[in-house]
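Hello K.,

You asked for the raw outputs rather than the summary table, so here they are, unedited. I folded two proteins back to back in the same session to keep the settings identical. This is the first:
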Amino acid sequence: MEFTFRDYVRVLFRQKAVVLICVLTVGITVFVNLALKTPVYDAQVKMLISAEKQIQSPYYREVYGEHNTKVALTQSEIVKSGPVLERTVQALGLDQKPANYERKYASPLKAFLMDVYKNSETKTSAQAEDPSGQLAFRNAVAALKDAIRVEPIRDTNLFIIKVRDFDAVQAAMIANVISRSYIIFDLEQQLADLTLKYGEKHPAVQQLRDNVDRMVEKLNGNALSNIEAIGPATVKIIEQANIPLEPTGPRKKLSLLLAFFVGSVMGIVLAFIFEYMDPTFKS
């Protein structure tokens, strides 16, 4: 017995409830997941590692004597080190962020769930006994470390610092300040080496200290001129962070359209399976 197109349509019509349930189930699931996911923005800074330093200490000889990729990976760990992150948190006051910082950017559904969770949550004794704010500061440093990704560019001395945040402007500011904090760390390493070799009064030491002070004054996240961004350090800012225009991840409309397609296919397949398993005489 051959099936015609009308027979297939008749099967789908009889099993329309199955198709409709599949489409609604997949669609609602994807919609809820999208509603519970707060949009985030990625800002990035492109850095260049230069091998020319005012003094070649054993530290730098060891680092720059290796392959470019290993050098970039080493610098990646320095970017996410305590001194760099702590300076960034302190400069931008990230430890002053409210605990429900995400709520401002979350969907109404997630904001409601966050409020419910907050009302049911009890303050811990450690939080209550933190008048100095040290716990909040350490938490801010840990959160910033989780929000950073460092990606070396293969076969080059370049790498990218990416920062993720719920606020596009804040993401760009943090990325810029981290890159400058990293440069300050690099300058301080050279300053320590020069001081040990030449003493406090040497002109090169004084000049390097002035460079550090000028860079500290620029830890505000605002854009710098290209000359200021490149700076005197051996780690150069090649491309400063711009405010990202769109959040990362798939677009909501595209995700919902894909969910409708997947739900429809799943419903059609199940409709024919149920039709095949149905022993009722129909003709």
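The second followed immediately with the same parameters:
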Amino acid sequence: MLVVVSEAPPIVSGVSRTVDRLRRDLATQGILADVISANEMRRWSFGEARISSFAWHWPRLSRRFGDYDVINLHGPAPTMSDLFLAAYRATPMRSRPPLVYTHHSAVDLAGLGPLCRLYDSVTARLAAFADRIIVTSESYAIAIATPNGPAVDVIPWGVDAAQFEAPGRSPRRPGDPLRVLFLGQLRPYKGVEVLLESVRDVDGLELTIAGGGPLEGSLTSAASTAANVMMLGCQAEDDLPALFARHDVIALPSTTRAEAFGLVLLEGMAAGCVPVASDLPGVRDVAGPTGVVVPVGDVAALRVALVALANDPDRLHSLSTASVERARVRSWERTASRYAETIREAVVDGHRQRTRHLLPRMLRQPEQAMGAIARRFGATWWSLIVFPGADAAQPVAWGRAAEPASAGQPSRIAAYVAREGRPMLLGPGGDAGAGELMTRRDVASALAIPVRISGSGMGVLTLSVGSADARRYTHADRDRLAELVA
């Protein structure tokens, strides 16, 4: 698999972390990934906006398509993921691998609301060119889905719960302040200023801000005038479990839809922290069930939510316990397993889509065409298998042959008929040389007809009737079917 993403290690970000973790976990599932990121391309930054030189790299990148079975593109990344989708669409179908598009968030830049909404609309249209779409929450599944577009799979990010669990965690004692933690990049959309102002000099609340970024200086200055706020700076990954264990709440007060999940919420929840987060798509999906969701950018509402938790230790304990349980079922192994399933399905579906144009016109919608033919000939099952030629890694199948439990034998029969190049009746009274291929006890009789396709390959159409059926196929049925699909 080729992974194309805006950020990858050594860049520190949620996208970078999740892509790196997926790459490692998918390798255990038998999916090996090469990663191409904007790290390898020149980029220009204008505040929160970034422009890449991706367009100049497309020719080199597209020449590598033949080395991969599937592409996983992560977006949105203006001037990168959008250009990739547009150029991919313009590439001849036979020259491009199946594409899985992972949609992380909306684009939401301060002062550019209408332009961002237009961009998100264009992104949804471009994403429809993919074979499959993956999102991390139901909120984004609704946002990215288009009529007659590709299937959208909701696969939330995972967490190594055991790494963050704190079995020795002592409950908060009566009279102790509520210990609130923010952990992450200190960037404008993270809303740390909102959190700081909501906590500033409020009795019963203490705030720790851990992380680095462009706002570190201004936040350090603001925190210096608040007696109950402490700045820690960047933290080593090995120190995070102990940091979470010293706090009661993990806060994510982000102010724009650039925040779309909140991996740090899951990590804090695994340690027993109660999530308190902004009411944003995706973020509320993570925090809402076992935490508190507050209006975006509302200092007063955030203060009220935190004070309420400080004054209700029973509720705090209940939400903490529920958060730990919720984090335990969100394992990275589960995320990687579901990713692998979607990727493999996309490969199969993509090859089917790319093979349809090789079929005779009457069969280019195999499900509908073969269903009608099966009814006409009274078939119990039908299969259509295409062997595209010497360059194809594997045959492409529809119908019963595409079912995992049945794929082996129909493929053997189809391969034999494709080599022979002639219609065959299989079963009692059938054509010589094909009888030994009929080893399934639930199949009494079958017709297998070679179908000429474009290029050097061959397709094979198979109809069969079950042992319990009264009907048995004849040579006349074989000849009628061969004439129909000639």
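The chain is about 35% helix and 20% strand.

Happy to rerun anything if the numbers look odd on your end.

Regards,
P.
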